[in-house]
């Protein structure tokens, strides 16, 4: 019988313990065990990026990371990106009114945040190459680019 | 202003919070909307208030319909705020509950969102409610001061008596407002002339955006009810998406199942057989997913669906489209096409085929239900509150009006979330288990059990006189119907005709003899409302064929459209587009422009689009470099949102034109997820130039879907001008392009 086990993980700076099947993707631990629901399910196979979070500072698909593989890794979700929605990207996303349905935008912002951390002044080509894993079905892409450029320019 | 996204509260709390004045509005027997009840909140409960003026000067305004990215949560309350003369900065928007008071008279008479009907449907209601509320506030202030009502005016959220230099804020007035029984009816004549608009037509910030950048926006999939069970459903290999008001899906449902392995997984509670699926219920979501994978199910294979093959269906239906003895329902015919055809100097015919396409909303279907006796609560990202109520009533026996539908944000709707199967699943399982149940569809469930845009075959014929004039035009469309499956009650009133499928066949080109005919065929696989529905394929045929006629008669395709255009608005968008895209300018030899137009019919929004393309002649891949769109939406409530909507439509049109395809074999959908149903990514978006011309007609329109349809024919027309190859099948996959190029090369040898 497939059994659940206890895991301890660090999410947004807080240590949390959950009881889950070892192969449970981090996505579902965040959403259904910890009720941190800003990170979204879109495909379950690393195709859409709606589930993007930071694991030890790197943008990753949380749908592809089993809880058992996390060890002592530190997880940051959209809820932990800033204290009061004041990360430069969040401010730029509001200024550009990037979201439409908004469902994919947590993942978009988290992926963009990883880019700006490593490369504070990306070219448009670098932005496009970096953001390619994330789908927006509403097609807000041109405003995603505009928002990243705005945040990078410090506007 | 902000969107109030709170845990579902009983309405009583909304109304009692802080006292104040609340107004309810309803449709009177004279078909005029009027305030039926206005009172201080402490006096008692007003169910379903539209506007609530609070002593702290905040003003709560209900959004009667669903926010799914179209900005409606901003633009509808803004209409009310305009006539109320409210200070927009103090407005808080609330999501309305499901109730008859919030129906959209322009949308099947239900509360729901679809067909680009919200702006048009609520345009008068919202403004009349605002004007009525303003009158009541003025009346109360005048009485308080003892001055004539006629001497009072309003400024942002204030009543002003200029003569005595006194003013009261709406919040102050709300404290002493009296109950007003039968307040005077306001009519269209009481509304502000457009020169006095402070809000309509000027961009404000969207109220839903802040919650969408920090993870706090609540979508259906985010709902958490303490003690709830999760459900994952094993679904038929055959596309099986019954509409729960009219079907069960049992014809493709489970015969038997073996859950011996599934039940060994910790966290699984029970496995139950439904008509259309087998549900695994558990206390842990991932446990239900694992159990679903090891569940063994024997399935029925429905007579009709199991014979459905999309490739052969196109050929079969093309033969029907060609065969004039197979009659259907005609729409908007003029003159006598048969005569024009026999008298023609020359004739032209072409056949167009389009595949199924799928919504692939980023948020897959989901619903959470809690049935406890006659108490039924459902949390669902829905485009159809009334239909959700009807479905729950059918399953539980509780009257529809008593079903509480809690509308969340919708993570992509595009028509798909008018469907109610997820609602039915959650309610059925909650009733069965006596617990709250959350049903979440996997992406594979979503792709394999969607409600696809109908597959079509279309036959076009033109009669051309000796002077080159087009004297006859015939358009025969063969397709399944969405109505017959999802709105059967509407279909039964007028069987054989489906306006959402035939939409776009009628275009205002001045051809004296026109024939449009829809021939319905029942396919047996689920078809539904996909962004713009029929417009996506009818406009492909109409606007491609218009270019074929231009080529046949040696005319410039844009000039031919302008010359034939009978609607001045159409002429204006075409002429504006001509300049915008530099139609008459020179291009490099590897690129060409194509054009297409869409009248929009009842949407009352017209659009013309041009695309610039190049073609990789080895791979057959079409590259779209730039898209120009010129739209006449009439009055744009929020021009920026409108442009976003047009851009979304254009990107959908691009994707459906070039790539999106659901292939069905033996009733089974061949695609599963984004790896084999690719949708546009960030590196595939061309430059898009959108211009708005505001027609003098001043009406509001539905602009949500208008941009979709012209993209594909514009691309096909551009490819023709570049290569001489005519593409008549959607999507224009590289393999189809190379095949068409090869066929043309063989013909010309």
Describe this structure in words.
By secondary structure, chain A is of the alpha+beta class. Chain A folds into two domains: 5-80, Ubiquitin-like (UB roll) (Roll); 88-152, [2Fe-2S]-binding domain (DNA polymerase, domain 1, Orthogonal Bundle), CATH 1.10.150. Chain A is built from five helices and five strands. In chain A, strands 2-1-5-3-4 form a five-stranded mixed sheet, with helices on both faces. The longest helix of chain A is centred in the last third of the chain and has 14 residues, at 105-118. Chain A starts with a strand and ends with a helix. With 749 residues, chain B is α+β, with helices and mostly antiparallel strands. Chain B folds into three domains: 2-212, Aldehyde Oxidoreductase, domain 4 (2-Layer Sandwich); 220-303 and 365-440, Aldehyde Oxidoreductase, domain 4 (2-Layer Sandwich), CATH 3.30.365; 310-356 and 452-748, 2-Layer Sandwich (Aldehyde Oxidoreductase, domain 4), CATH 3.30.365.10. In chain B, the strands form seven sheets. Chain B has a seven-stranded mixed sheet with strand order 12-13-10-20-17-18-19, with helices on both faces. Chain B has a six-stranded mixed sheet with strand order 1-6-5-4-2-3. In chain B, a hairpin with a 5-residue loop joins β4 (51-53) and β5. In chain B, α2 runs parallel beside α3 (118-145), α8 runs parallel beside α9 (421-433) and α17 (639-658) packs across α18 (711-723). The longest helix of chain B is centred in the first third of the chain and has 28 residues, at 118-145. Chain B is globular and about 90 Å long. The termini of chain B are far apart. The interface between A and B is large, with 61 and 62 residues.
């Amino acid at each position: 019988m497939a059994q659940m086990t206890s895991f301890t993980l660090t999410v947004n700076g807080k240590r949390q313990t959950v009881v889950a099947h070892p192969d449970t993707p981090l996505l579902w631990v965040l959403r259904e065990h910890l009720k941190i629901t800003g990170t979204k399910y879109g495909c379950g196979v690393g195709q859409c990026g709606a589930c993007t979070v930071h694991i030890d500072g790197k943008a990753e698909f949380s749908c592809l990371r089993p809880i058992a593989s996390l060890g002592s890794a530190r997880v940051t979700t959209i809820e932990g990106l800033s204290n009061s929605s004041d990360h430069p990207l969040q401010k730029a996303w509001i200024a550009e009114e990037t979201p439409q349905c908004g469902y994919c935008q947590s993942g978009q912002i988290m992926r963009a945040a990883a880019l700006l951390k490593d490369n504070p002044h990306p070219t448009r080509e670098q932005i496009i190459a970096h953001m390619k894993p994330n789908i927006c079905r509403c097609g807000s892409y041109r405003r995603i680019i505009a928002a990243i450029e705005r945040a990078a320019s410090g506007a | 202003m902000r969107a109030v996204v709170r845990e579902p509260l009983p309405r009583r709390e909304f109304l009692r919070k802080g006292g104040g004045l609340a107004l309810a509005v309803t449709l009177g027997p004279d078909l005029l909307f009027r305030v039926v009840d206005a009172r201080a909140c402490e006096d008692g409960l007003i169910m379903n208030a539209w506007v609530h003026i609070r002593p702290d000067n905040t003003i709560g305004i209900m959004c009667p319909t669903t926010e799914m990215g179209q900005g409606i949560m901003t633009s509808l309350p803004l209409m009310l705020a305009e006539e109320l003369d409210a200070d927009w900065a103090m407005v808080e928007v609330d999501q309305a509950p499901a109730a008859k008071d919030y129906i959209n008279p322009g949308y099947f008479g239900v509360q729901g969102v679809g067909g680009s009907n919200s702006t048009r449907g609520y345009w008068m209601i919202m403004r009349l409610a605002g004007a009525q509320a303003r009158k009541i506030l003025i009346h109360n202030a005048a009485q308080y001061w003892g001055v004539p009502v006629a001497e009072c005016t309003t400024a942002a959220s204030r009543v002003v008596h200029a003569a005595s230099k006194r003013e009261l804020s709406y919040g102050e007035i709300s404290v002493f407002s009296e109950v007003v029984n039968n307040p005077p009816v306001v009519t269209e004549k009481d509304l502000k002339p457009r020169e006095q608009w402070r809000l309509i037509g000027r961009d404000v910030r969207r109220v839903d955006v802040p919650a969408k950048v920090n993870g706090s926006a609540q979508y259906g999939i985010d709902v958490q009810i303490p003690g709830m069970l999760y459900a994952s459903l094993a679904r038929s290999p055959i596309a099986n998406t019954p509409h729960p008001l009219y079907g069960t899906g049992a014809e493709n449902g489970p015969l038997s199942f073996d859950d011996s392995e599934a039940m060994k997984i910790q966290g699984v509670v029970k496995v139950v057989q439904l008509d259309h699926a087998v549900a695994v219920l558990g206390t842990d979501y991932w446990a239900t997913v694992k159990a679903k994978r090891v569940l063994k199910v024997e399935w029925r294979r429905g007579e009709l669906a199991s014979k459905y093959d999309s490739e052969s269906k196109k050929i079969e239906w093309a033969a029907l489209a060609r065969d004039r003895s197979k009659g259907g329902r005609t729409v908007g015919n003029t003159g006598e096409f048969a005569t024009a055809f026999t008298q023609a100097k020359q004739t032209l015919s072409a056949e167009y085929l389009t595949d199924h396409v799928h919504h692939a909303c980023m948020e897959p279907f989901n619903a959470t239900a809690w049935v406890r006796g006659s108490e039924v609560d459902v949390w669902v990202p829905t485009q159809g509150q009334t239909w959700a109520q009807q479905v729950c009533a059918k399953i539980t026996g509780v009257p529809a009006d008593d079903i509480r539908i809690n509308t969340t944000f919708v993570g992509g709707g595009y028509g798909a979330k008018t469907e109610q199967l997820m609602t039915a699943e959650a309610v059925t399982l909650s009733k069965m288990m006596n617990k709250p149940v959350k049903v979440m569809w996997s992406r594979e469930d979503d792709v394999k059990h969607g409600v696809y845009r109908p597959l079509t075959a279309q036959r076009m014929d033109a009669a051309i006189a000796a002077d080159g004039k087009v004297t006859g035009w015939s358009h025969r469309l063969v397709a399944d119907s969405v109505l017959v499956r999802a709105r059967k009650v509407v279909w039964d009133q007028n069987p054989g005709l489906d306006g959402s499928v035939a939409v776009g066949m009628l275009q205002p080109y001045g051809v004296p003899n026109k024939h449009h005919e829809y021939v319905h065929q029942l396919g047996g696989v689920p078809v539904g409302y996909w962004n713009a529905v029929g417009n996506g394929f009818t406009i492909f045929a109409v606007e491609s064929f218009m270019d074929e006629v231009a080529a046949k008669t040696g005319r410039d395709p844009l000039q031919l459209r302008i010359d034939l255009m009978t609607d001045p608005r159409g002429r204006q968008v075409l002429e504006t587009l001509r300049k915008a895209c530099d139609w008459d300018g020179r291009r490099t030899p590897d690129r060409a422009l194509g054009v297409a137009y869409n009248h929009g019919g009842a949407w009352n929004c017209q659009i013309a689009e041009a695309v610039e393309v190049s073609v990789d002649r080895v791979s057959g891949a079409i590259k779209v470099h730039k898209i120009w769109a010129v739209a006449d939406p009439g009055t744009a409530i929020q021009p920026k949102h409108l442009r976003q909507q047009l851009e979304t439509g254009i990107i959908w049109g691009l994707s459906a034109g070039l790539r999106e395809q659901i292939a069905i074999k033996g009733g089974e959908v061949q695609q599963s997820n984004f790896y084999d149903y690719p949708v546009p990514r960030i590196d595939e978006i061309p430059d898009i130039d959108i211009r708005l011309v505001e027609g003098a007609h001043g009406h509001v329109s539905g602009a949500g879907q208008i941009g979709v349809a012209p993209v594909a024919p514009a691309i096909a027309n551009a490819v023709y001008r570049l290569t001489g190859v005519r593409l008549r099948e959607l999507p224009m996959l590289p393999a189809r392009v190379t095949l068409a190029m090869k066929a043309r090369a063989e013909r010309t040898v």
